[in-house]
Design a protein that fits this description.
Chain lengths: ~280, ~550
């Protein structure tokens, strides 16, 4: 795919970046520029060390807002970012990935899973194609993610997470900030819970929260019948025995319901998880 | 039809066994090979019989000793290896130190058949007796199968693989008693062969001359079951892993345990022997023979009764795992024949080493090919493997957060992928057990109760014509796995939803068949199929 070097003065330069103190000039883009014609855009970011809960929520939120008509922007890192991108792609919507390194350098070094994702994302980078990733380069990437979006959601972030830098950028740029509340005691949710507790971010109680904030019609979510199993697994994957104990059922009957329920999957380590 | 005497006749025709040997020193005498007198032999040639090993296959070896006039010399021909060639020095000293005279003439020892490579020190006794016979110091022919190494002072030392050699001789139709070093007498007598245990070379001569007859060794008792390894009741919680272990024991399905460190994966695997059925008599003979070749039998109780449980360390090399070397020794997969092979920390094994498990898992045997020869060892075992869920070991552990990145997880899991994963029927999570549960006692089943279910299930499998359900062919799966209607629907939806391959489908049915056998059900129920699907390896 051809690489576009987009100047600030060029037509098609994404709106929103002008809010940055020093907008990137030029901006390197690989993919269909038309994606920037779509608004609103929403940033979904989070930690690389995600939990099963974070992965599911990031994916579900991304699918819901993408179905509602928003473009998902994230950083194509491992973890929450990748889950957000694939959630948007599941909805058949385009998604924008802002890289903290040169696009060529990314292609040369990314792992198999992210390389496959990247083929279906619009890649954006403020750095020349051959610039290798260095720790200081990601702060600029985070600011661009916040600037591109109308609204920023942090799904999971431990206290030292880079996603909290994006959250700070969002506040500086005046973008509404949302955070996904997580289970108490989960290290991956300490940062997001603190954002909510400190009043810096609004809590996400469902995809509808975001759709309303974006001014989109609340999509009618595909109604899934309530299930004890899905409830028990909402907080994260469980081993069959733990699930059986939680529900007061025999292991065999839990097995039967798990296998019959298309919303559930068995993880490579044998635990059962919501899809 | 007496097959053993037929086999004997075949060996006689082949010239391996002397049919009738009339021997008078220094007097021309006749030798019959086959059933015809083929030659009149004028020199002093003595023959004794011994047995060489190549893998589990043993070849009868005739030791021919010629003592001729000429410059004093002692040579061994017939492709001896270094240990056999060094027999010259041991035999010379042993003969002298036993009060005999080593002939000061030209002594030639031929190990026939000559084209076969001979290794080890087990031929010493046969060579020494042959020399004594050829030089007239022993006046009786030696019809016995002679096995033993000699010390310089004339005492005997045990030989490796005595059980395997005596078994092979028996299969070849040799009915002669076995004259064996006292240290190996237990092994030699284990299968019921008449065994004369000799402590010194002189004992052997006195016995053969009839001056001091030795009583045959009585067959030793089989080994008592290994009391090591835990009882299932000692492990708190972990009901589904225990169920998976029971299924593996009953149906011979390969099992993968996944869980954070310290949750009892190793403890569970080590409890497997306590629920395995005992060895069948014919399996016991083969398993004991493999252990005999490896020199691992307890001389007091050489015949195994419990199924072997082998747990090689994860630094094991390819040779250690599948066998090899010159001469080829059995590896862990063969030592686990009839039992279980436990690979703890599966992901830490080198990928190249794990690849070598493919053939034994597929064929139930290992063939080690080396220049000139191929040795085949049996290797039909149940694979039990344990692994951490990730590099740091805490993925999915509610107490300790995992520090691995998603791509590191991918890489870790990829180490277990490929053909090996294809052969693993069961995969089960072994999660951390809450403290409250650790305190609980009772309520869990003891191993003996589980074992009786396993035995009953194995009996059902035997009636179906297979040792275990894991060995059922696709046609047999079709014939023996009829489903109840609700189970049928569940399986159909699972095949669609989860896109099961044909292989995974049959594997699920085999496991479900074992679950039904354990519950003594003729048709597979919903629970059987559901649990089989849940325990299905990805």
């Amino acid at each position: 795919m051809s690489l576009i070097e987009l100047r600030r003065a060029d037509a098609g330069y994404p709106s929103g970046l002008a809010d940055l103190p020093r907008p990137p000039d030029p901006l390197w883009i690989e993919g269909d520029l038309a994606v920037f014609d779509h608004v609103p855009r929403i940033a979904i970011v989070g930690t690389r060390r995600l939990t099963g809960y974070g992965e599911r929520v990031a994916r579900e939120l991304a699918t819901a807002v993408a179905t509602g008509g928003a473009v998902v922007v994230s950083g194509l890192a491992q973890g929450i970012d990748s889950a957000a991108h694939s959630g948007a792609l599941d909805a058949g919507a385009p998604t924008v990935a802002v890289l903290g390194e040169g696009i060529g350098s990314f292609h040369a070094t990314a792992g198999r899973r992210r390389a496959q994702l990247a083929q279906r994302c619009v890649l954006v980078s403020p750095y020349p194609p051959d610039a290798p990733a260095l720790p200081w380069m990601f702060a600029k990437r985070n600011a661009i993610i916040a600037a591109l979006a109308a609204l920023v959601v942090v799904v999971e972030a431990p206290p030292d997470s880079g996603a909290l830098i994006t959250a700070g950028d969002a506040r500086r740029l005046g973008r509404p900030l949302f955070a996904v509340p997580g289970p108490l005691g989960s290290a991956a949710s300490v940062g997001t819970n603190a954002l909510i507790a400190d009043g810096l971010a609004r809590a996400v109680t469902g995809a509808d929260t975001l759709l309303v904030a974006l001014g989109l019609a609340a999509a009618t979510a595909p109604s899934t019948p309530p299930s004890l199993l899905a409830d028990a697994l909402a907080a994260g994957p469980l081993a069959p025995d733990a699930l059986a104990e939680l529900l007061g059922l025999s292991a065999a009957s839990v097995a039967a319901s798990c296998v019959a329920d298309p919303r559930l999957v068995t993880l490579p380590d044998g635990r059962i998880s919501l899809r | 039809m007496d097959t053993s005497s037929q086999a004997r006749a075949r060996w006689i025709d082949a010239g391996v066994i002397p049919h009738r040997l009339q021997y008078r020193p220094e007097v021309p005498f006749t030798v019959s090979v086959g059933r015809a007198t083929v030659a009149r032999v004028s020199a002093a040639v003595a023959r004794t019989l011994t047995c060489a090993l190549w893998g589990l296959e043993a070849a009868l070896v005739t030791v021919e000793v010629d003592v001729a006039n000429g410059l004093p010399a002692f040579s061994i021909v017939g492709l001896p290896d270094t240990a056999v060639r060094e027999a010259r020095e041991r035999v010379r000293a042993a003969i002298r130190n036993s009060g005999f005279e080593f002939p000061l003439r030209r002594v030639t020892v031929n190990l026939a058949p000559a084209e076969r490579k001979k290794e080890g020190s087990g031929f010493d006794l046969a060579i020494a007796l042959g020399i004594l016979r050829a030089s007239g110091q022993l006046t009786k022919d030696v019809a016995e199968l002679c096995l033993g190494e000699l010390a310089l002072d004339g005492t005997t030392r045990p030989v490796r693989g005595a059980l395997a050699r005596v078994r092979a001789a028996g299969l070849a139709g040799i009915e002669a008693p076995v004259l064996v070093a006292a240290g190996s007498a237990g092994e030699a007598a284990a299968l019921g062969a008449t065994t004369i245990a000799v402590i010194t070379l002189r004992d052997a001569v006195e016995h053969l001359e009839g001056r001091a007859r030795l009583a045959p060794t009585t067959a030793p008792l089989p080994a008592i079951s290994d009391p090591l390894g835990g009882d299932l009741a000692d492990i708190a919680g972990q009901e589904t892993p225990k169920r998976a272990l029971e299924v593996a024991a009953a149906g011979g399905h390969n099992l993968l345990l996944v869980g954070p460190p310290g949750t009892g994966k190793t403890l569970l695997a080590r409890a497997l022997p306590s629920i395995l059925p005992p060895l069948d008599p014919d399996e016991a003979v083969v398993a004991s023979a493999v252990h005999s070749v490896a020199g691992l039998l307890d001389p007091g109780h050489p015949l195994l009764s419990a199924r072997p449980f082998r747990s090689p360390h994860h630094t094991a090399s390819r040779l250690a795992l599948v066998g090899g070397g010159t001469p080829p020794r059995p590896g862990e997969v063969s030592l686990a024949h009839g039992g279980a092979l436990f690979l703890d920390e599966l992901a830490e094994f080198s990928v190249a080493v794990l690849e070598t498990l493919r053939e034994p898992l597929e064929e139930g045997a290992v063939t080690i090919s080396r220049a000139g020869h191929a040795a085949t060892y049996p290797a039909r075992f149940t694979l039990v493997a344990a692994t951490n869920p990730c590099r740091c070991g805490h993925h999915g552990d509610p107490d300790t957060p995992c520090t691995c990145l998603p791509e590191q997880l991918d890489r870790y899991r990829a180490r277990l992928s490929g053909p090996l994963k294809d052969r693993i029927d069961l995969r089960v999570a072994v999660p951390r057990v809450p403290y409250a549960r650790l305190q609980e006692h009772g309520g869990t089943e003891r191993s003996c109760a589980v074992r009786s279910r396993v035995l009953a299930a194995r009996e059902l499998m035997r009636r179906r014509g297979r040792r275990t359900n894991a060995e059922l062919t696709v046609a047999e799966v079709r014939r023996h796995c009829s489903l109840r209607p609700d189970a049928e629907r569940l399986l159909a939806s699972a095949v669609q939803e989860r896109r099961l391959s044909a292989r995974a489908y049959h594997r699920t049915l085999r496991v479900a068949r074992t679950l039904a056998d354990l519950a003594d059900r003729e048709r597979l129920s919903l629970d059987d199929v559901a649990l089989a699907l849940l325990l299905r390896a990805p």
